[in-house]
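New here. Your pick:
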Amino acid sequence: GMFALALWNKEKKNLCLARDRIGEKPLYWGWAGNDLIFGSELKALRLHPNFQSRVCTAALSQYLRFKYVPAPRTIHPNIYKLEPGTILSVDTLSPSAPPKEPIRPGENYGSLYIRRYWELSSEIQAGSQHQIKNDSEAITMLNNILKKAVKKQMISDVPLGAFLSGGVDSSTIVSLMQNQSTTPIKTFTIGFDDPSFDESNHAFAVAKHLGTNHTKLQVTDTDARDVIPDLPNFYDEPFADSSQIPTHL
């Protein structure tokens, strides 16, 4: 599943931070003055009185190249993203000054150590030893894995739905959700006035076929522009994927 957690061992005076395998949940950590700080949003870390809101030039260079700031850097110097599938451990004798470069899995800095508990390359290597022999086996296996994953994601203590574009991936997920629900699931799609961007008719056709409780939001140019000033607050650091606007709406 997706998680980010902090665990304090009061006997050993040791702190552990951990992030899920793929990095769905954010987890930031770093230094504010001499204090080691962490949180699930950069805006939370900025509240520390010694936080320095300068721009990291190395992160800025990566942003201009990739349209986002890849882990482990953030847009601020001395503040990092904990990389997916890793655990950071540190005791009370943690270094009081930040390192010159980000600490990567397998490296330590004083009593601070980051280790990787899961990595995709190992899964690929294991899978290569048990190769699928035919299409039928592949279809059955994929269906079972997706069905199981969707069922787990549907366990929730708040209302949930699906973002439906009408494409192969979202339609597959919605189909598996509806198949495992006794009531119509809620689906949502964004429609655009520009027909070259609009996929809402495809989404409507899928929703009608599956019998979902479907909602369409028609987004105008004005709606999109009105969101732009708030994007830095939503995402905490530069992020240049245009899908962020309809996703938020």
Observations:
- Residues 135-153 form the longest helix (19 residues).
- The chain is about 35% helix and 20% strand.
- The longest strand covers residues 186-192.
- The two ends are 25 Å apart (CA to CA).
